[in-house]
Amino acid sequence: MIRYRRISVHDPEYAGEKELRHRVLRRPLELALSEEDLRGEASQVHIVAQDHAGKVVGCLLVLFSDERAKVRQLAVDAAYQGRSVGRTLMQLAEEAVRERHIGTVMLHARVTARGFFERAGYAAVSDVFTEVTIPHVAMEKRLEPCA
Ligand SMILES: CC(C)(COP(=O)(O)OP(=O)(O)OC[C@H]1O[C@@H](n2cnc3c(N)ncnc32)[C@H](O)[C@@H]1OP(=O)(O)O)[C@@H](O)C(=O)NCCC(=O)NCCS
To answer: How much is the pLDDT for 145?
Structure first.
C-alpha cells in the first residue's frame, strides 16, 4: 500500500526525500545533491510516495516561476519501479499545476526515461543536451482544463 502526500521542507519526510534523490538520481552518477539542486526548495511543491512503514519510496518536485511549471527530481526507489508510482506522482504533479491555473508542464527528461514521459503525454521540445553529466531532452505537456 503506497500513500501519496505533499510535504514541506519542514516535515521530517524531507530528509527521506533527499536520501532517495541522492540514492536514485545522484549516487549512480558519482555525484551528490548540490547547493544548486537544493536552492529554493522551500517554495517548491514536494510530493512523496511512502510505503506502509512511512519510508519515502518515490518523490518529485514542482518548481513554479513566471507562470511556468517545471517538474524536477522525479525518483522512484528501485524496489518500487514498474508499479505505477512514477505515473501516479506525475498525475499528482499535474493536479498541483492545474490548481495554479497553469496550462503547461515542462521538464528535463533523462533520455533513458523519455519513453516513460511520452506514455504520460509529454513531447520532446529540444535537442538532446547534457545535464548532470548525462543526456537529457526538454519535454512539455499541455494540460486539459478542468471540466
Ligand atoms: C523513470 C521512473 C521515474 C519511472 O517510474 P516507475 O514508477 O518505475 O514507472 P511506472 O511504473 O509508473 O511506469 C509507467 C509507464 O511507463 C513505463 N516506463 C517506466 N519507466 C520507463 C522508461 N525508463 N522508459 C520507457 N518506459 C518506461 C512503464 O512500463 C509503464 O508503462 P505502461 O503505461 O505501459 O504500463 C523510475 O524508473 C526512476 O526513478 N528511474 C530512475 C531515475 C530517473 O530516471 N528519473 C527520471 C529523471 S528525468
So the answer is: 73
User: Which residue, chain included where needed, has cell 514498474?
Assistant: 82
**In CATH, 3-102 is 3.40.630.30:** yes
Nearest CA to ligand 1 atom 26: 116
User: If you measure from the C-alpha of residue 62 to the centroid of ligand 1, how many angstroms do you get, rounded to a whole number?
Assistant: 18
SS3 36: helix
Residue showing cell 505533499: 6
Work out the pLDDT band at 146, boundaries 50, 70, 90.
low
Determine the Cα–Cα distance for residues 79 and 100; give it in Å rounded to an integer. 33
What separation in Å is there between the alpha carbon of 77 and the centre of ligand 1?
11
**Residues 82, 85, 89, 90: what is their CA dihedral angle, to the nearest 10 degrees?**
20
pLDDT tens per residue across span 45-77: 999 999 999 999 999 999 999 889 999 999 999
Find the residues whose C-beta lies inside 6 A of ligand 1. Answer: 24-25, 74-76, 81-87, 109-110, 112-113, 115-116, 119
Which residue's CA is minimally distant from atom 12 of ligand 1? 84
What residue segments make up the domains of the chain, in order of their start?
A: 3-102
